[in-house]
Write a structure and sequence with these properties.
Elements: H1 3-10, H2 15-21, H3 26-47
Length: about 50
């Protein structure tokens, strides 16, 4: 979900306020990186 959507759902007037309450979970960050990497590898594989 985009930061803008989170901001609106939380009722914050500013993204800066939303960022104060957001903390990156290392496990989730790693899982998202793996998904990104897999997606990029598929894209590279399709273009060659």
């Amino acid at each position: 979900m985009s930061l803008h959507c989170v901001k609106d759902l939380a009722g914050h007037a500013s993204i800066t306020t939303t960022e104060i309450y957001l903390h990156a979970n290392p496990r989730i960050k790693f899982e998202q990186y793996q998904r990104y990497e897999e997606s990029m590898m598929k894209t590279i594989g399709e273009s060659t």
